[in-house]
Each structure stands twice: as structure tokens, then as C-alpha cells.
Amino acid sequence: MPYISEENRFTLQKIREKHGLSMSIIAENANIAISKVWLLENCGYLPERDVDAILVSLSRITGEVYTRNTVGGYWTGGAEDAFKVEFRYG
User: Fold this and answer.
1) pLDDT at 3 (0 to 100)
2) Structurally, how many domains does the chain consist of?
3) Domain with 36 in it: what CATH number?
4) Which residue segment(s) compose the domain that 36 sits in?
5) Which of helix, strand or coil describes residue 10?
6) Cα(first)–Cα(last) distance of the chain, in Å?
7) What is the mean pLDDT of residues 39-53?
């Protein structure tokens, strides 16, 4: 499960500040729990599908394109990594 560095990338916090967005607006637009948006902003682990849902939501709301190549500061991986994290901490 790789860490996606914020080096040369935007962080969710910076994007939210730039556009004046709340976590709840992003979560509602992405149709996911607000806790997942919080995890992305606070260097937490999220499966790739949740990261992508948040980034698509940000792109739709702001009119700018945000991808895993342009947004960093979180851990991500596939479904098998999600199970390991949920089992360990859930």
C-alpha cells in the first residue's frame, strides 16, 4: 500500500481552502461517507476507488482536473490492502 506524497502535488486541504469547499459537500457529491474525505485530508488510508470518487467529485465541483497524479498526502492501495487495514484497525 503506497504513500502518495504531497511533494509537487496539491493536498485536499489546499484544494478545499482554494475553493472554499466543505468536506460534507465533497462527500455528498462523491456519494461516500464524510469520514473518507477526512481520511484523505489527514494522511489516512483509502482504497483507490474511494480516492478516485473524491477526486472526480472535486473535479466536478471546481471545474478543474484533479487526479492521483496531481493530489497527494494519503495512503492508497487495492481491495486486498483495504482488508488488511480494516482487519488491523477496524
Assistant:
1) 81
2) 1
3) 1.10.260
4) 3-89
5) strand
6) 17
7) 91
Which phi and psi (to 5°) does residue 21 adopt?
Answer: -100, 145
Higher pLDDT, residue 45 or 20: 20
Q: What is the mean pLDDT of the chain?
A: 86
Kindly state the average pLDDT of the residues 4-19: 91
Alpha carbon distance 6, 80 (integer Å): 24
CA angle 31, 50, 36 (to 5 degrees): 75
CB neighbourhood size of 28 (10 A) = 13
> By three-state DSSP, how is residue 58 classified?
helix
Percent of the chain with pLDDT over 70: 84
Are 75 and 3 within 8 A, CB to CB? yes
Closest CA to 4 of 73, 53, 70: 73
